[in-house]
Amino acid sequence: MSEQALCWLNGQLLPLEEASIPVNDHGLLYGDGVFEGIRIYHKRAFRLQRHLDRLALSARAIALDIPYSLAELTAAVEEIVAVFGCESGYIRLMVTRGPGPLGLNPAGCHRPNVIIIADQIMLVDSQSREQGARLIIAATRRLPFDGLDPRIKSLNYLNHILAKIEANHAGVDEAVLLNSQGRVTEGTADNLFIVRDGTLATPPCTEGALEGITRELILELATEAGIPVQIAPLAPYDLYTADECFLTGTGAEMIPVRDIDGRRLTACPGPVFKQLNRLFFECIESESAEARS
Ligand code: PMP
User: Rounded to two decimals, what is the model's pTM?
Assistant: First the structure.
């Protein structure tokens, strides 16, 4: 047991500060690579197989061969989680294109680096988590679907970082990115939901959102609970006039939204958020208990 930040680097487990990769890795030079963020709850990686499946799809989409099988990656994550030893935490699993000659052609890169970090994460402070996050709609638009498919969870987040910088300058917690048609996609590292007249709505991923694993779980939980669900395009108008709004993600978990561009939402945290948040944490508890037994 260590409880210090750790890194599993190509099969070797090290303290995080001792882990290093060559500076000519195309992951660093060009953001060429893919990743996953995974939560640890009760000393277990939550929904690990879903994350590894998505990682494999992201890698295939960019023609990157991961040099480990699914079973080996599962074992690697389980090993680092066990040695990390914390009840809860966060895993960052990355596969980079690996070192290669300068110039963006990946053909000269032959050894992808597989990096797994176990540490803690805090996306918003506890006050924003309880009282609701403040959002702006960023001027930065989400890269078009036909430029970079939003289902690829790539190492290049500059588009989202530009939106986050806008949020920082505006003194708020998070920014919403619109697509080039001016419709809502997602937050900088989270999916977005609204509630109006008791119906839960989120944009389809084809609008430009990641197929979030937390989003998928919230949709399942809402359907099981009999909450009407709509996967439909949303405009800024729908955000401004919603009864409730919240963000979901592995890092974010579920964060209620207090206001968007200064428009205060009717309820924060609202009744649908509260119900789904309870169901979300019950699901985490029951999956963890199941895994233990
Ligand atoms: N959108 C983006 C752009 C993200 O980076 C994330 C976090 N990985 C999400 C949405 C939420 O996805 P998930 O629930 O799978 O963490």
Answer: 0.96
